[in-house]
């Protein structure tokens, strides 16, 4: 689940469909559709032809786009770290001896997945709030109104997978006691005495 969420975040980060043009009121010309993403904006013609242009200046971008870029890239890197940490602490690997340390490493990996889900939720909700506010704002012209694109929904699904996967990892790794930390002791085998009977001290 964590890996699927991580891949979903990377997909949402690269897709240009964070905001799409809204066809309302007088803006009913559907000959072209405008897509706006974190890295580029695209114009899709009704014939299927698409033209995309990468943003020229980073500093001239709105604050939500800059924050979305930074947070999604950080989440993509943190997701890779979480994957490696979880693999190191997994029961199917021998990188670390089984015990409390290995269990804590797995919990750390799950916590990083949860952190990724929380971080990527910030730009998604920020964009959604701006789109909804502008859509119902009467001062914004209809040609400038936008709707939520597919990338936002992919990002929310990825967030749910990251949070759920991270919680599962943490819950499954936290056991009430670590049985491997207690040494196993076996009683010595009973030995027969010279007359063929067992020593009475074995029954004490």
Automatic annotation (TrEMBL):
Coiled-coil residue windows: none
Entry keywords, A to Z: Cell junction, Cell membrane, Membrane, Signal, Tight junction, Transmembrane, Transmembrane helix
Annotated Pfam families: PMP22_Claudin (PF00822)
One cellular-component annotation, GO: bicellular tight junction
PROSITE patterns reported in the protein's UniProt record: CLAUDIN (PS01346)
Superkingdom of origin organism: Eukaryota
Subcellular location: Cell junction, Tight junction; Cell membrane
Transmembrane segments: 70-93, 105-132, 152-172
GO molecular function, one term: structural molecule activity
Position of the signal peptide: 1-22
Membrane topology annotation: Multi-pass membrane protein
Cross-referenced InterPro entries: Claudin, Claudin_CS, PMP22/EMP/MP20/Claudin
The UniProt record lists the keyword Transmembrane helix: yes
UniProt function note: Claudins function as major constituents of the tight junction complexes that regulate the permeability of epithelia.
Family, similarity comment: Belongs to the claudin family.
Full protein name: Claudin
Organism: Pluvianellus socialis
């Amino acid at each position: 689940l964590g890996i699927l969420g991580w891949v979903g975040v990377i997909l949402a980060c690269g897709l240009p469909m964070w905001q799409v043009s809204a066809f309302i009121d007088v803006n009913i010309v559907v000959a072209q559709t405008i897509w706006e993403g974190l890295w580029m904006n695209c114009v899709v013609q009704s014939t299927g032809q698409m033209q995309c242009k990468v943003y020229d200046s980073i500093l001239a971008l709105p604050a939500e786009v800059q924050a979305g870029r930074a947070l999604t890239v950080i989440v993509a890197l943190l997701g890779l770290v979480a994957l490696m940490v979880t693999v190191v602490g997994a029961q199917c690997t021998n990188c670390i001896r089984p015990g409390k340390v290995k269990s804590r490493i797995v919990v750390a990996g799950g916590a990083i997945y949860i952190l990724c889900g929380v971080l990527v939720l910030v730009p998604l909700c920020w964009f959604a709030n701006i789109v909804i506010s502008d859509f119902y704002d009467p001062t914004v012209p209809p040609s400038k109104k936008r709707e939520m694109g597919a990338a936002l929904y992919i990002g929310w699904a990825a967030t749910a997978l990251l949070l759920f996967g991270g919680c599962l990892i943490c819950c499954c790794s936290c056991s009430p006691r670590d049985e491997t930390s207690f040494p196993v002791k076996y009683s010595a085998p009973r030995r027969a005495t010279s007359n063929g009977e067992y020593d009475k001290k074995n029954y004490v």
